[in-house]
Design a protein that fits this description.
By secondary structure, the chain is of the alpha/beta class. The chain contains 13 helices and 13 strands. It is globular and about 65 Å long. Belongs to the homoserine dehydrogenase family.
Length: about 325
């Protein structure tokens, strides 16, 4: 039996709990059982031998808390001492100092526990530190869900394309920006009207800074640069500009050149950058909506393009599930 502890029980935490509950037959076919032995949010904690995912989610929805006990003052110590095999870290991204996720992940790794995380902050700021801790303690650090939601770019690159020399990457890594830019083009909307529409539909946060100023995309570029290209960089190494200053005139001028404007993350050829770029309408990266998409240039297979929904409860849970299955298979 593989015992998991869920750190953070917002939308993503609830999503992975529900998926664990619904995929027990899959785990059984792999001669494994996944048991949730604990979960905590910002104010409460619950622990037990085999917690019911449906009941956990229902309690969170009805009371605002997942647990029946107050969260301990020293969560790091709790993680170190608790009896579990995998930490499922779904804590929110903090790009300034990566806490509390950074401490939670390091505590798990140092105590010999695997980690599956959706949190970009620790990876974007301390990737080499986390990787070294996992290697030193002989455990796995998995983070497909941190970049692109249901777009499996990390596992694709590291597994199916393991024999390729990947020389560069260009991609749309933020669905919110893509939605806004597409609405500006299709409907002729000014930036802030398109932003309000994205907020009304739930695609953009009340404070959209991370999205529209390229912070989210830059964090993902840093993670991909380390994970796929073997670099040793962090978020602050990425040259970044967002879409806040894109005007209707700029959108119209792009259309005259049979192009669209997209916020593109780039790695390779000396570039480590996020910026608005002109993209020909016939190119895959001209895609609209909230999709994420990335194009990899390889030496043998040429250009490979992958896309998927970049955010959402089920989409992120899907990515975390794939990492959890990878850990199960590595046990065999």
């Amino acid at each position: 039996m593989m015992k998991v502890l869920i750190a953070g029980f917002g939308t993503v935490g609830q999503g992975i709990a529900e998926v664990i509950g619904s995929r027990q037959n899959l785990f059984s076919s792999m001669n494994e059982k996944i048991s949730i032995v604990g979960a905590f949010d910002s104010s409460s904690l619950i622990s037990g031998k085999n917690l019911n995912p449906t009941q956990l989610v229902e309690k969170k929805k009805t009371t605002g808390k997942v647990g029946t006990k107050e969260i301990p003052d020293d969560v790091a110590r709790y993680i170190e001492e608790a009896d579990f095999d995998v930490l499922l870290d779904t804590t929110p991204t903090n790009i300034e100092h990566a806490e509390p996720g950074l401490t939670y992940i390091l505590s798990a790794l140092h105590s010999g526990k695997h980690v599956v995380t959706s949190n970009k902050g620790p990876l974007a700021l301390k990737f080499s530190t986390l990787s070294a801790a996992a290697d030193k303690n002989g455990v796995k650090l998995k983070y497909e869900a941190s970049v692109g939601g249901a777009m499996p770019i990390i596992n694709l690159s590291k597994q199916l394309l393991a024999g390729e020399d990947i020389t560069s990457l260009r991609g749309i890594l933020n669905g919110t920006c893509n939605f806004i830019l597409n609405r500006m083009k299709e409907e002729g909307l000014p930036f802030y009207q398109a932003l309000r529409e994205a907020q009304d539909l739930g695609y953009a946060e009340t404070d959209p800074t991370y999205d529209i100023d390229g912070v989210d995309s830059a964090a993902k570029v840093a993670i991909l640069a380390n994970a796929i290209f073997g670099m040793d960089v962090n978020y602050y190494d990425v040259v970044r500009s967002g879409i806040r200053n894109i005007t209707e005139d700029a959108i119209a001028l792009a259309a005259e050149e049979n192009s669209v404007i997209r916020l593109i993350g780039e790695i390779g050829g000396g570039k480590l950058e996020v910026a608005p770029r002109l993209v020909p309408v016939a190119h895959p990266l001209s895609i609209g909506g909230t999709q994420n998409m990335a194009s990899l240039i390889t030496d043998l297979a040429g250009e490979i393009t992958i896309s998927g929904r970049g955010a959402g409860k089920k989409e992120t849970a899907s990515a975390m599930l794939s990492d959890l299955i990878s850990i199960i298979r590595d046990k065999e």
